[in-house]
Amino acid sequence: MSRKPVPAQSGERSRVEVNFDKPQLLPQLFGEFDSNILALEERLGVYIHARGQRVQIEGSAEAVAHAREVLQELHARVIRGEEVDTGLIDAVIAMSSEPTLTGIIKADNGNAPAQIMIRTRKKTIVPRSVAQTQYMHALVSHEMIFALGPAGTGKTYLAVAQAVAQLITGSVQRLILSRPAVEAGEKLGFLPGDMKEKVDPYLRPIYDALYDCLPAEQVERRIASGEIEIAPIAFMRGRTLADAFVILDEAQNTTPAQMKMFLTRFGQNSRMVICGDPNQVDLPGGPPASGLNDATRRLEGVEGIAFSRFSTADVVRHPIVGRIVEAYEGPNA
């Protein structure tokens, strides 16, 4: 692999060589046509040259050290069976700039970091940011979790994945997935069809996460049997949700009365996750009218309830999504 060097970042120029074992895995690390290496060069301002098991990194001392750390972490993830793509590269780069994950989550039997992951029928999911690591730990250690932050940070997706994993293992008997049927800034008018067909457009993101974690035929079968229930929040009134993993998505669009009603449905042997972006409220009156913001103010610090907060730095969709969110919510918004 030989290319024209990328201009290095400011600072003393440096060159290091990294030797990798398991050479059979290097094609997965480098990507098709070295696409992953090219992405690292572009993002970190270094030049990377690979020959056999040896990889040479050239650039400023700071950039070279950063690139070596990222490459070694990506190699470790390939060994664990993860697929390297630009999303993972961006996540590892972001994580390497934050406090180390080591020590955040400890194994029960010692000081080694525990491997935090969620296993479903279709994939094994691992965290892609420090905030996701803390959130995934909260999902297994708390009965009620509020996940707060912008779009694209994995709040709902990870909650659905954890719910599917617990349903598969029999830890819960049902999945109940809900969100308020609030129009996002536009009037949709009359929607044809029966009740399911009327509310399905609002619940599409939940379906998408389900189909990503379970084969389609299992999703349909479990919905038909009642193991998986997907419904607007109004359908929760008057019920006690026991032996269930309950997720409320787009919770910022609940009213305080709806939120109180939903939270008090909590039953024995259940887990409840409330996901939402406190700044993206589609209710008349904006954020002050949001049941999510009201509940956060009332419940933070209450024993047994965890709060996981995400920022634009935790966005794991295309990098441009994080920049868009920052433009809308940053200091110049």
TrEMBL record:
Keywords: ATP-binding, Cytoplasm, Nucleotide-binding. It comes from the Bacteria. InterPro entries: KH_dom_type_1_sf (IPR036612), P-loop_NTPase (IPR027417), PhoH (IPR003714), PhoH2-like (IPR051451). GO terms for molecular function: ATP binding; RNA binding. GO terms for cellular component: cytosol. Its main location: cytoplasm. It is found in: Cytoplasm. Residues 125-329 form the PhoH-like protein domain. Belongs to the PhoH family. This is PhoH-like protein. It comes from Sphingomonas kyeonggiensis.
